[in-house]
Amino acid sequence: DIQMTQSPSSLSASVGDRVTITCRASQTISTYLNWYQQKPGKAPKLLIFNASGFQGGVPPRFSGGGSGTDFTLTISSLQPEDFATYYCQQSYTSPPTFGGGTKVEIK
Amino acid sequence: QVQLQESGPGLVKPSETLPLTCTVSGGSVSSGSYYWSWIRQPPGKGLEWIGYIYYTGSTNYNPSLKSRVTISVDTSKNQFSLRLNSVTAADTAVYYCARDPIQRYGDSFDSWGQGTLVTVSS
User: Fold this and answer.
1) DSSP letters along chain A, please?
2) Could you say which of B46, B64, B105 has the minimum Cβ distance to residue A91?
């Protein structure tokens, strides 16, 4: 299985901050990388597909990038509703696997 | 807009079988455009894909669970189901059903049920 490693595992930030989360794959996955947002007690929500493709309804402050083994999710200006846990997931090969998550907390 | 809803027992005894059903509304499991997946999340931990089914009955399972998992589909009821055999405490998790569009970027999960907590305990 392809292992996905996210960093940091948690971070504290303020409203308006620019936040970047990193995801690294254990082997090259081209751009087969998706990002999800999960709020407490809720199901994950797909934000970004194919590394940089926007899922419908996702605010433009979210952006994704990267290819090969290294990927980023950036929130350009953190909003109160963005405090959540974020997961990356590779879709290059089966089984699809997820990173361990990055919890974004209020500073 | 498609909605998915999990149902099943919240408590299962060790060594028994965990049965869950996902009911789809606002869309059809018979659509040839989607796989229908099960994903789980142990309390406080990350996400693990269990497997998916296509409306024809074709399946794909996570090798780590393959020996214990069966996913089936009932197109007449617009449902798909999960059975996980020989459960242990390690199978305690929130179980989600999710829709997986068939597209060239591989598996992604664009609609999810709310999730159901299943606890394995005697």
Assistant:
1) ---EEEE-SEEEE-TT--EEEEEEESS--TT-EEEEEE-TTS--EEEEETTTEEPTT--TTEEEEEETTEEEEEESS--GGG-SEEEEEE-SSSSPEE---EEEEE-
2) B105
**Whole-number average pLDDT of chain B:** 97
- Give the integer Cα–Cα distance in Å for B4 and A33: 24
Q: What tens digit of pLDDT does each residue of B33-48 get? A: 999 999 999 999 999 9
Strands B18-25 and B48-53 come out as unpaired
Provide the shortest C-alpha distance from residue B56 to chain A (in Å): 19
Among the partner residues A50, A90, A94, nearest to B60 by beta-carbon distance: A94
Nearest CA in chain B to A55: B110
DSSP symbol at B29 = T
Query: Scanning every residue of chain A, which has its alpha carbon at the shortest distance from the alpha carbon of B96?
Result: A43
Report whether B99 contacts B38 (CB < 8 A): no
pLDDT surpassing 90 at residue B14: yes
β partners of residue A75: A19, A62
Taken in order A22, A39, A103, A99, the sign of the CA dihedral is negative
* Binding-face residues of B in 96-115 toward A, CB within 8 A: 96, 98, 105-110, 112-115
Contact criterion met (CB below 8 Å) for A90 and A96? yes
